[in-house]
Specification:
- It is a single chain.
- The protein is mainly α.
- Helix content is 65%, strand content 1%.
- The chain folds into two domains: 254 residues, no CATH class; 95 residues.
- Strands 1-2 form a two-stranded antiparallel sheet.
- It is globular and about 70 Å long.
- The mean pLDDT is 94.
- The structure holds zinc ion (ZN) (2 copies).
- The site of one zinc ion (ZN) has 5 residues, from helix 10.
Length: 371
């Protein structure tokens, strides 16, 4: 079958920037040398690009996981042009298609099922039919956003201004123009490109699947380090509207911290969260699936499977009782109910919690051999 035509602009852009970074940086390091300021300025510029993509393009515009002030939107729009990853409208439309048709060979624009190379960068090098329609039918809401449409109209000039203007300006202030053009200009761009691309490629190959195995997405703490928290991709694919990707407090997700900080200072609102119960339920269902797969491999699995499902249903009853008791108590607390009633609800909540924790522990011990 004939391959679709090459997109020369993209091919030249990705190749030339990678070559300049790969050859120019070591050459300059040996002939002139870099100092600490080059490193810090590159990290700052890289963070600006990456956070504009993760907090702006991705969690704000693609998934509407929170709302923010137009000034913040404007900053993201500039950072996104600096990151050179297409306009917000185009990026978000592609990304929504990715979520809707994840792993579909024909409909997911960067389906991981088509290989690591394709999902990483190959999908941008040729005019594949999976590229979304230019009408952006799945992003009508974004077409009503002034910042989004302004950036879309002026995208090309904004990429020029930011990618030439910012490194050149910093270079003049710093004194080492060529060194800064290489680091803040080119190295920053190459790193920011490939760190983002890793989420479409490696985060669909390498890591754990604690929440779902209905698609290829993975949770990967190492990728989260490179991508400002986006590495928790398995969680993200099942709960895509959550402003967090690393949902646990200890998981490295600077994008989540940025959004929470914006909220704290009044610049963001309506942060969307998955409930603890929904998260827990997804994890339990995933564990049950693994247990069933483990049991199925053993001789005469029927009896064991039936027993396991019974235990699981029993566990779910405790699970629901606990979350119901917790919700009832929290609501009463919010409504400032009478002290006596609050004490009663709290006692019930603590008892249900104790039951749930011990049941869960027992179930984990009982099933440990099968997962
Ligand atoms: Zn994905
Ligand atoms: Zn997403």
């Amino acid at each position: 079958m004939k391959k679709p035509p090459i997109i020369w602009t993209n091919l030249i852009l990705f190749t030339s920037t990678a070559l300049v970074a790969g050859i120019g940086i070591p050459w300059y390091a040996m002939t002139h040398g870099f100092d600490f300021s080059h490193l810090i300025l590159t990290i700052i510029a890289l963070s600006f690009c990456e956070l504009s993509i993760t907090a702006g393009y991705h969690r704000l515009w693609s998934h509407k996981s929170y709302e923010t002030h137009p000034v913040v939107e404007f900053i993201y729009a500039i950072g996104g042009a600096f990151a050179l990853q297409n306009s917000i409208l185009h990026w978000a439309s592609d990304h929504r298609t990715h979520h809707r048709f994840v792993d579909d060979h024909h409909k997911d624009p960067y389906s991981a099922k088509r290989g690591l190379w394709f999902s990483h960068i190959g999908w941008m090098l040729r005019e594949y039919q999976t590229n979304p329609s230019q009408a952006y039918a799945n992003a009508r809401d974004l077409q009503k956003n002034k910042v989004v449409m302004w950036q879309h109209r002026h995208y090309l000039s904004l990429t020029m201004i930011t990618n030439i203007g910012i490194p050149l300006g910093i270079g003049i202030l710093h004194g080492d123009i060529l060194g800064i053009l290489l680091t803040v200009g080119v190295l920053r761009l190459v790193l920011s490109h490939h760190f983002t691309f890793l989420i479409n490629s490696l985060a669909h190959y390498w890591g754990s699947q604690p929440y779902t195995d209905k698609n290829s997405s993975r949770d990967n703490g190492f990728l989260a380090l490179l991508t400002f928290g986006e590495g928790y991709h398995n969680f993200h694919h099942i709960f895509e509207f959550d402003y967090r990707n690393g949902v646990r407090w200890w998981q490295f997700d600077p994008t989540k911290w940025l959004i929470a900080s914006l909220c704290f200072f009044g610049a963001a609102k309506n942060l969307r969260r998955t409930t603890e119960a929904q998260i827990e339920k997804a994890k339990l269902a995933m564990r049950l699936k693994r247990i069933e797969q483990g049991i199925a491999l053993r001789p005469n699995p029927q009896e064991m499977l039936a027993k396991m499902r019974e235990e699981y249903n029993n566990l779910l009853e405790h699970f629901h009782a606990y979350y119901e008791a917790k919700t009832a108590y929290k609501i009463a607390q919010k409504k400032k109910d009478a002290k006596q009633r609050l004490e009663l609800l709290m006692a019930n909540y603590h008892m249900m919690r104790k039951n749930w924790v011990s049941q869960k522990k027992a179930w984990f011990e009982m099933t440990a051999a099968y997962v």
